[in-house]
Structure formats: structure tokens, C-alpha cells
């Protein structure tokens, strides 16, 4: 099963999350199929950059969204149809 989920990047006390497409049994920060976005929770506005067209493609072939990725999409889906960038 394929899942779209967050993978932690960045240094100690300064997390940046990548939105990754991974096989479900892989570890959180393990090997991934494709990176479809990034999210920086510590910035003042919460900077997110998501490729919605690629996320929609992976959903169409059977990938599931994690709860955190699903809430990110709902939160930032107001600007654009194919790519979201919040600055």
C-alpha cells in the first residue's frame, strides 16, 4: 500500500517536513517514491508548498493520505488548483 505522509527533515529543534509518497511499511524518514511538497511549521505563517496535481495523481492510483497531510491540504487549499505556496 502506498501512503502520502510527512517526513521530518531539518536540524535539531528546527523541523522542516517533506510531503512524501512512500510504501506503507517503510520508516517515516526512510526511502520514498516521490516528494510532492514541503511544510515549515515554525515559520510565522506556516509556509507550505504542495503539488496538488501530483497528490491527486497518487490518490487516483490508490494512495492514501495521512491525517496530517489531509489537514494540510484542507488548510492551504484556497490559493491555487495545481500548486499551493503559502508565504
Characterization of this structure:
The chain has two helices and six strands; from the N terminus they run ββββαβαβ. Helix content is 22%, strand content 44%. With 87 residues, the protein is an alpha+beta fold. A hairpin with a 2-residue loop joins strand 1 and strand 2 (14-23). Strands 5-1-2-3-4-6 form a six-stranded mixed sheet. It has helices at residues 52-60, 67-76; strands at 2-11, 14-23, 34-40, 47-51, 64-65, 83-86.
Characteristic terms for this protein:
S16 Ribosomal Protein, Chain: A, alpha+beta, 87 residues, six-stranded mixed β-sheet, globular
Furnish the topology, listing elements before pairings.
Layout: E1 2-11, E2 14-23, E3 34-40, E4 47-51, H1 52-60, E5 64-65, H2 67-76, E6 83-86
Parallel strand pairs: 1-5
Antiparallel strand pairs: 1-2, 2-3, 3-4, 4-6
Short description:
This protein has 87 residues and is α+β, with helices and mostly antiparallel strands.
- The mean pLDDT is 82
- Indicate the CATH topology: S16 Ribosomal Protein, Chain: A
Residue fraction in strands: 35-45%
CATH H-level homologous superfamily name: Ribosomal protein S16
Task: Work out the radius of gyration.
Answer: 12 Å
Secondary-structure element string: EEEEHEHE
Give the strand tally: 6
Q: Please mark out the parts with pLDDT under 50 across 5 or more consecutive residues, or reply none.
A: none
The tally of helices reads 2
Terminus-to-terminus distance: 33 Å
Trace the largest sheet across and list its strands.
5-1-2-3-4-6
Largest sheet: 6 strands, mixed
Query: What does the oligomeric state look like here?
Result: single chain
Helix content: 10-25%
- Total separate domains: 1
